[in-house]
Amino acid sequence: MAKTSAIERNKKRRRLSARYAEKRAELKSIAKDESLSLEERFQARMKLAELPRNSSPVRIRNRCEVSGRPRGYYRKLKLSRIALRELGAQGKIPGLVKSSW
Q1: Contact call for residues 70 and 2 (beta carbons, < 8 A)
Q2: Any idea where the domains of the chain sit in the sequence?
Q3: Are 62 and 72 in contact (CB under 8 A)?
Q4: In sequence order, which residues have a C-beta less than 8 Å from that of residue 32 and are 6 or more positions away?
């Protein structure tokens, strides 16, 4: 099990990212628009830099829904490899059969 503080920090990042997504996208489009003046684009970049760092979606870490493990993560299932193996062995994931030979 991962540290509770790490899991909560990641949840906070997800909330912030969702809250600032629209504003961030708007400022990025202004900053990339070549038709605007250099000053306007620079102001958009400065406003973007003033937003909280944790509101950037890049800072979100994919973590297992069951254990909070950050490594060995399957995006499609939102599980780590270890949790996937355990749940598969218990028969809790439809269509998944743990092979052994």
Answers
A1: yes
A2: 1-61, 63-101
A3: no
A4: 41
Q: Which CATH superfamily is domain 63-101 in?
A: Ribosomal Protein S14/S29 (4.10.830.10)
The tokens 């973590």 sit on which residue? 63
CATH T-level topology, domain 1-61: Helix Hairpins (1.10.287)
Residue 19 is predicted with a pLDDT of 97
pTM above 0.70, yes or no: yes
pLDDT at 69 over 80: yes
User: Which position has the token pair 């503080």?
Assistant: 5
CB 93 within 8 A of CB 57: no
